[in-house]
Amino acid sequence: MVPALALAAGAVTLLAGWLLFGRHHERREVPPPADDPPAFEAPPPANANPPMPKSEALSTPKVDQEVAADGLGFMPLHDGDPRPPGPLHPHRITPTHQRLFAENRIANALDDATDAQDVAAMKSLLAQYRRDFPEDRWQLQDGYAVIIGCLEHPGVESRAAAERWLEVNNGSTVKRSVLRNCIQPQQP
Questions:
Q1: Residue 15: pLDDT above 80?
Q2: Distance between CA atoms of residues 146 and 172, nearest Å
Q3: Separation in Å, CA 164 to CA 112, 150, 179, 182, 183
């Protein structure tokens, strides 16, 4: 008797659900009459750029305008400067950017050579880094020199040199490499 009541209650629930929710596809939305005013539209934000005409958006940059190798222009330098049409690069790649990219390439190569414990490559890259970037603003050069010393001549003296370097250069990004290659015991 109980299963029959549960079955009947389930059937009633399904029927009620179908009557309430299942027939929504029969409802049709009536479009508003043509004379009604349009719905309220929020004004564009004050800092939004006005929409460009399609012909202007697809045009190529002007001859006197500086463009990248892919033909796209650049964002203006100042907020009040006119914005060129179409898609733009965020900024120009300046000689300062190129110098930073070159420094990062050497530093990444030094990291890779350190991970591989390739002392010859590390010496070559460190010599290039010292020649091209003598200012060493990231405190990398002496750290890599300490690591080279530890890899070439492991022992008490190279470990003491690494500890002295760590005391003075605690904020250097080479710190972990110095710890891994000079201070922590090598794992088999």
A1: no
A2: 13
A3: 24, 13, 12, 12, 11
Query: Among 45-59, 133-147, 167-181, whose mean pLDDT is lowest?
Result: 45-59
Residue of higher predicted confidence among 8 and 172: 172
Q: What is the pLDDT of residue 63?
A: 42
Helix axes 95-115, 119-132, angle to 10 degrees: 160
Q: What is the pLDDT of residue 43?
A: 54
- Domains in the chain: boundaries: 59-91, 95-183
Q: Are 144 and 123 spatial neighbours (Cβ–Cβ below 8 Å)? A: no
Q: What's the burial of 177, exposed, middle or buried (CB within 10 Å: 0-12/13-18/19+)?
A: buried
pTM above 0.90, yes or no: no
Distances (CA, A) of 9 to 3, 15, 16, 18, 128: 10, 10, 11, 14, 83
DSSP result, 106-162 = HHHHHHHHHHTT-HHHHHHHHHHHHHH-TT-TTS-HHHHHHHHHHHHS-SHHHHHHH
Other beta carbons within 10 Å of 13 = 10
Residue 39 pLDDT: 53
